[in-house]
Structure formats: C-alpha cells, structure tokens
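Work Package 4 report. The design task specified in the project plan requires that, given a folded chain encoded as structure tokens, an amino acid be chosen for each position. We show below one input record used in the internal validation round.
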C-alpha cells in the first residue's frame, strides 16, 4: 500500500512542477500513459464482449443451417415420392386409354370401365390427400412440441355443424383447420375461411389457425390465402 505524502512533500512536488520543466513534462507523460492504459482496458473489455456475441451468432447460424439442411432432405424425399406417384398415375392412365380404345362398341363394358376409372381416381385422390394430411400433421406436431404445447386430438375427415374438414388438430392452446388439395383454387380458400369461422364458434376459448396444404399451389392462390391470414404448406 502506498504511503500518504506529507504536506511538505506535496509542497515540494508542486514547487518542482513550477520550476522544473522536464519534471513537469515527465509527470504529464506519466498521467497520459495511465489514461491511455485505462482506455485500452475499456476497449479490451468491449472487444471481449463483442467476441462472445459473435460466437453466439455463429452458433445460431450453424443451428439454422442444420435445420435448413434437414428441411432440404425432407423436401427431396417428398419430391421423390410425388414423382413416383405421378409416374404410376401416368401408367394407369395410359393403360385405361388403351382398354377404352379396344373395347369400342361394347358400351356396357365401357361404362363399367368408366366406373372403375372413377373409383380409382377417388382412391388415388384419397391416398394423395391422406399423404398430404400426414405430412401436415407431422409438421404441426413438430411446431407444437417446440412451443411446449400438447396435442389433444387429431381428427381426419372431421365434421363441425355438418361441415366436412379434411384434418382437424387440437392442442391445449390452438385448433388447426386444414384444407388438403393437390391443386387448390380460390373457392377452396373461401371454403376454408368459412370453416375457420365455424370453428371459432365451436372453440371460442382457443385460437383458430387455418392451413392450406397441397402440391401445386399457384402463386396467386398462395398470396390470396396468406392475405387472409391462412398458412400455406406446399409439398
């Protein structure tokens, strides 16, 4: 610990400062160095804080990159499955066209085949909608779990007040009303809005979220849906 200067010592220093120019410059230089050192300490502290912030940002960027890669893989898988479905549908269509040409005048057989085609289209449509409904539910479930919510109920082909809903997912906070269409149109968005209004009356205590899901959703349809505060999931 430094000793306190006596009054005589202080007076002697003051007098020396007045009379000795070199001593006065030396003291001023020492004080300036101390001030510079203090400022350098402050700058170093700020640099350490900025370095920590940069490290945190880098970690967040790495996490975002990982999530984007996972989404990219999932999209590639969905694209592959859809391409397989498309090829199978093309093969089925070609086969049916050949059969219709060969049948010719056999009206009863033609009518029978038409009924089979109609039934097959319904089955394919149902399978496709089921696939999209499953994909949407998986996405919703992941989002719900991240927010700490709990899925209470998932109903495929639900009905509220005699109105059909492709998929209804209820959590402890939110009710999701999902419309599944391979190629949705404006009227599909309108029907979804009407279903959301019905759900709001049926679940007055919960937030209602509308979702439009499909494969071939045009930009205008997507913009229109988002403008109505409807989420759009494209697969």
């Amino acid at each position: 610990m430094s000793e306190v200067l006596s009054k005589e010592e202080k007076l002697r220093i003051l007098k020396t400062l007045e009379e000795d120019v070199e001593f006065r410059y030396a003291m001023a230089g020492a004080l300036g160095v101390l001030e510079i050192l203090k400022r350098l300490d402050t700058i170093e502290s700020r640099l350490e804080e900025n370095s920590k912030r940069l490290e945190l940002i880098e970690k967040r960027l790495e996490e975002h990159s990982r999530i984007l890669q996972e989404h990219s893989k999932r999209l590639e898988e969905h694209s592959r499955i859809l391409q397989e479905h498309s090829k199978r549908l093309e093969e089925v269509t070609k086969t049916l066209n050949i059969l219709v040409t060969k049948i010719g005048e056999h009206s009863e057989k033609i009518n029978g085949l038409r009924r089979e085609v109609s039934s097959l289209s319904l089955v394919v449509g149902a399978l496709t909608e089921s696939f999209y409904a499953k994909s949407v539910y998986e996405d919703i479930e992941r989002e719900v779990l991240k927010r700490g919510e709990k899925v209470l109920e998932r109903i495929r082909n639900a009905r509220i007040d005699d109105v059909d809903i492709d998929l209804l997912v209820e959590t402890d906070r939110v009710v999701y009303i999902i419309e599944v269409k391979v190629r949705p149109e404006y009227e599909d968005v309108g029907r979804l809005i009407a279903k959301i209004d019905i759900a709001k009356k049926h679940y007055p205590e919960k937030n209602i979220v509308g979702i439009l899901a499909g494969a071939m959703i045009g930009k205008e349809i997507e913009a229109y849906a988002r403008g109505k505060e409807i989420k759009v999931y494209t697969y």
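The longest helix spans residues 21-103. Validation will be extended to a larger panel in the next phase.
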